[in-house]
Design brief:
Keywords: DNA-binding, Nucleus, Transcription, Transcription regulation. The chain contains 2 helices and no strands. The protein is mainly alpha-helical and 150 residues long. The chain has a domain of 87 residues.
């Protein structure tokens, strides 16, 4: 049997070790050499840059979500304060309305009482005038002044 050479992408466990280099070390490789190590390092930098962008975006999104939650909480607090204020205003307005309605009712009762007294006094005056006319001779030659008081 003829031994087949390993495929170019086949790595034995003894020859393959993951690269754990920092970006500064990767950046020290000579530029323009076009070797497989350079391509791997470039791909690693791309992946690291993509991971960094993803991490920054995730942090930015978390911060944005936190600000949004805080804004909503502040709006909710302001709305509850407005509810409390409006309920208090509503209660005061209802109290004012009830007081005005009681005052109107009291005035109506007082007005009715005054109308009743007016009617009684008018009746009494009418009787007094009739009694005075009955006792006074109607053939009196002196003209009578209704506006004078005795």
């Amino acid at each position: 049997m003829i031994a087949m050479p390993p495929t170019p992408f086949h790595f034995s466990p003894s020859t393959f070790e993951p690269i754990h280099e920092t970006p500064a070390i990767i950046g020290n490789s000579p530029g323009g050499s076009g070797s497989a190590d350079d391509a791997y390092a470039y791909g690693g930098r791309m992946a690291m840059a993509e991971d960094e962008r993803r991490r920054r975006r995730m942090v930015s999104n978390r911060e944005s979500a936190r600000r949004s939650r805080m804004r909503k909480q502040r709006q909710l607090t302001e709305l509850w304060a407005q509810v409390v204020h409006l309920r208090g205003t509503n209660r005061r307005l209802l109290d004012d309305l009830n007081r005005a309605m009681r005052g109107c009712s009291d005035m109506c009762c007082e007005n009715a009482q005054l109308e009743k007294e007016k009617a009684e006094l008018s009746t009494k005056l009418e009787r007094l005038m009739q009694a005075q006319n009955a006792t006074t001779p109607s053939s009196s030659s002196e003209p009578r002044d209704d506006n004078s008081t005795e």
